[in-house]
Amino acid sequence: MKVLVIGSGGREHAIARQFKNSPSVEEVYVAPGNDGMKADAECVALDVMDFSGLAQFAKEYEIDLTFVGPEQPLAAGIVDFFQLRGLRIFGPTKEAAQIEGSKSYAKALMKKYGIPTAAYETFTDAVKAKAYVKKMGAPIVVKADGLAAGKGVVVAMTVEEAVHAIDEMIGNQRFGESSSRVVVEEFLEGEEFSYMSIVHDGQIYPMVIAQDHKRAYDGDKGPNTGGMGAYSPVPQIPDEVIATAYETIIMPTVEAMAKEGASFSGILYAGLILTKEGPKVIEFNARFGDPETQVVLPRMKSDFGAFMTALLDGKPYELEWSDEAVLGVVVAAKGYPGDVVKGSILPDLTGIESKGLGVIHAGTKEVEGHFTGNGGRVILVSASADTLKEAQVKVYEGLNSFEWKGFFYRNDIGWRTLE
């Protein structure tokens, strides 16, 4: 089969590589991709929002399956666009993608169907939002309602911080239309984990869980980012908690969306937290998480292409997962998540891969035979091993054997489970 992956980041590279390693898949294209993906897929110079161009490519090249990576084209209705043209594509419709595209939609859905999540209120008026914050106190969480590239959430430890976040989002329109409405919710304490499921036509295939590190610096300090590293499995989350999350969150959410006339097909990402009352939802996404995908997909033993074909054909298929641990560390450009320095030359990455490590390209560009940084998160370096500790040691031995001028990475990915 021929597969087209839409997107250009680390998540899409991991998806493309998974398809490439599938015996059932002959060719993998990625649009637009990045220079570092060329060993795993053929890059196509089409923007993720160029629906007409992408559909035309899928038709001309007789693509059997288009798989959508990022949230923006999903929220804008790329799945509806392809389906109207009789093209096979995997992802939620525009209506179903609201589970990520509108936090107020997701919170209202959870409230209506009794799905456990933080208490909240929604505001379009900054004065009312700030009054609510002052009444509730801190810590408290302020979220832009719409898509904000993973940067629209402020966990405010003080009232002043929350008030500033509201002024930035509603007052200064920091995320444009996405922050004209904000959700203010209670701060939940506990261990966080990412629980992704592959969903289609009421069928739910849960994936192994992962945990990512959102803060930029060691010790979970500094500003929130898109994610500085991740690992799977998550030993501090017991199997019974995962089972409870499936019964009380994943399955009821899929059923609720069907009842609301917005049946979900695609990757349902549940960002969860284990509180004293049990697992609760922090957020839903309508696609694979980044960087969790880069540590979850390598644990899949099944043929990804054959599984996707069986799923869309309505045929049973049992997904198999490895017991191995995978841990990945993001190498980011200096300045990330703010103004980043682009153009720094990366070390020779074949040197890392020869040490048995995996390299996923998120934001790289090839210049005169060298890979250079071309974004905030540049690459992710991962290792598989029998234990997380062994995987962690392998990754950092590899990373620390090179100089990373113009880049930085956290030195403690996995610390929460390895203390």
From TrEMBL:
Pathway participation: Purine metabolism; IMP biosynthesis via de novo pathway; N(1)-(5-phospho-D-ribosyl)glycinamide from 5-phospho-alpha-D-ribose 1-diphosphate: step 2/2
EC top class named in words: ligase
Keyword Metal-binding: no
Annotated SUPFAM superfamilies: Glutathione synthetase ATP-binding domain-like (SSF56059), PreATP-grasp domain (SSF52440), Rudiment single hybrid motif (SSF51246)
E.C. designation(s): 6.3.4.13
Residue intervals of the ATP-grasp domain: 107-313
Ribonucleoprotein keyword on record: no
Keywords, in A-Z order: ATP-binding, Ligase, Manganese, Nucleotide-binding, Purine biosynthesis
Cofactor(s) needed by this chain: Mg(2+); Mn(2+)
Classification via InterPro entries: ATP-grasp, ATP_grasp_subdomain_1, PreATP-grasp_dom_sf, PRibGlycinamid_synth_ATP-grasp, PRibGlycinamide_synth, PRibGlycinamide_synth_C-dom, PRibGlycinamide_synth_C_sf, PRibGlycinamide_synth_CS
PROSITE patterns xrefs: ATP_GRASP, GARS
Gene Ontology terms, MF aspect: phosphoribosylamine-glycine ligase activity
Reactions mediated catalytically: 5-phospho-beta-D-ribosylamine + glycine + ATP = N(1)-(5-phospho-beta-D-ribosyl)glycinamide + ADP + phosphate + H(+)
Similarity comment: family membership: Belongs to the GARS family.
Name recorded for this polypeptide: Phosphoribosylamine--glycine ligase
Source species of the chain: Chungangia koreensis
Lineage of producing organism: Bacteria, Bacillati, Bacillota, Bacilli, Lactobacillales
Gene: purD
